[in-house]
Amino acid sequence: MSGVRVLVGTRKGAFVLTSDETRRSWDVSGPHFPGWEVYHVAGSPVDPDRLYASQTSSWFGQVIQRSDDGGRTWEPVGNEFAYASVPGTHQWYDGTPHPWEFARVWHLEPSLTDRDTVFAGVEDAALFRSNDGGATWQEVRGLREHGSGAQWQPGAGGMCTHTIILDPRTTDRMYVAISAAGVFRTDDGGTSWQPVNKGLLSDGIPSPAAEVGHCVHKLAIHPSRPDTLFMQKHWDVMRSDDGADSWEEVSGDLPTDFGFPIAVHAHEPETIYVVPITSDSHHFPPDGKLRVYRSRSGGNAWEALTDGLPQEHCYVNVLRDALAVDSLAECGIYFGTTGGQVYGSADSGDHWAPIVRDLPAVLSVEAQTLS
Amino acid sequence: MIRVVLPAHLRQLAQCDREISVDAPATQRAVLDAIEHRYPALRGTLRDPATGQRRSFVRFFACEQDLSHELPDAPLPEPVAEGKEPLRVVGAMAGG
Description:
The complex is a heterodimer.
Chain A: E1 3-10, E2 13-20, E3 27-32, E4 37-43, E5 51-57, E6 61-67, E7 75-76, E8 89-91, E9 97-99, E10 104-110, E11 118-123, E12 126-130, E13 138-139, H1 141-144, E14 160-166, E15 174-179, E16 182-186, E17 194-195, E18 216-221, E19 229-233, E20 237-240, E21 248-249, E22 258-264, E23 272-277, E24 292-295, E25 303-305, E26 323-325, E27 333-336, E28 342-345, E29 353-356, E30 362-370
Antiparallel strand pairs in A: 1-2, 1-30, 2-3, 4-5, 5-6, 6-7, 8-9, 10-11, 11-12, 12-13, 14-15, 15-16, 16-17, 18-19, 19-20, 20-21, 22-23, 23-24, 24-25, 26-27, 27-28, 28-29
Chain B: E1 2-5, H1 8-14, E2 19-22, H2 28-38, E3 58-62, E4 65-66, H3 78-81, E5 87-91
């Protein structure tokens, strides 16, 4: 019997939510690593019982946890993230040079072909790779060293590599997104990188042709169309149909185009989801109504999905890694809030129900489809 | 033997008791080396792995003294060396 496992990272530990294919009742386990911030938990597409978790603390640093039984038991693995060369400097908030310093792992992206290979996006922004199940980590140095690094600046949450997209056709091509630098692509497995931000317009950047400096919040692709990328930028929802060589805005009739996460339906490559947030100064939904917006046309025309979501007095946020889809026959959608709720929909977003209501603030949500 | 009291977050990570004992010379560096050798999961949690420096929010106390700013190879107080008093590793009160 098939089912779903939803992996939730929170400010105070990780939770694993499990259901059968009906997705009506859920088993909740956790907190795992109680008291620690868990920025991300991700499963291997090759072996769904192989999970990786980023456990972090301002007091005690970074820990990477690994599970081989779907999150029932865990073991700490390697936590040494050493930059490959003299780190140099990036720009600080005031524009002055600031030394690169490792803070934490924001995002883990397991390989599509090997359960022991996993990428880590870190703060201060860099990309690391492990080929031994997380025991040791090596920097993919071409990203940080390709030339524009000295111009990268932190966003409000820090200067983090928060998105890693692996092209399902070839291990040579991958994308990363960095706040607040932008999108970068490699076509040779990580040896060389180029910024791919043409068409992104950001207030406050003097030149509309600026190669870097864009506050990209999240990217998503559908595996059947890997040259089409969708982006939630600080402001603006964007799409590219040429592997990020160029971008066009598809915010269309959204009530606000500020937000953090973006996701693509598992079976409909032109159906995409965002969660509009009032503004960068008001990190809560417009009018106190928690609404997921769906476009079935790849952007521009959007519909509000509200059934089962609070439509008054709701002032939570949904962070960049906290929206995910499963790939059951009827696509499931899941998101977590800074108020500790995890909502799920078993019908592509038409109807929603809370799976849990009172977790710590949710940092990340991933969905695994189990066969 | 040097007695060491660990904070809750690290006990959970190392899966050990509140108080542990390590056989090591009575200096901060030697004791931390011994702790990390016995509990590899704690490597990098007390000291930054890149610099070897004490993490900013990790503090060391013993015999009602703050030893956090002592040099790593300075001798620990005699009651700690003799096992009469524990070296306390404390997560600093920080935040709001």
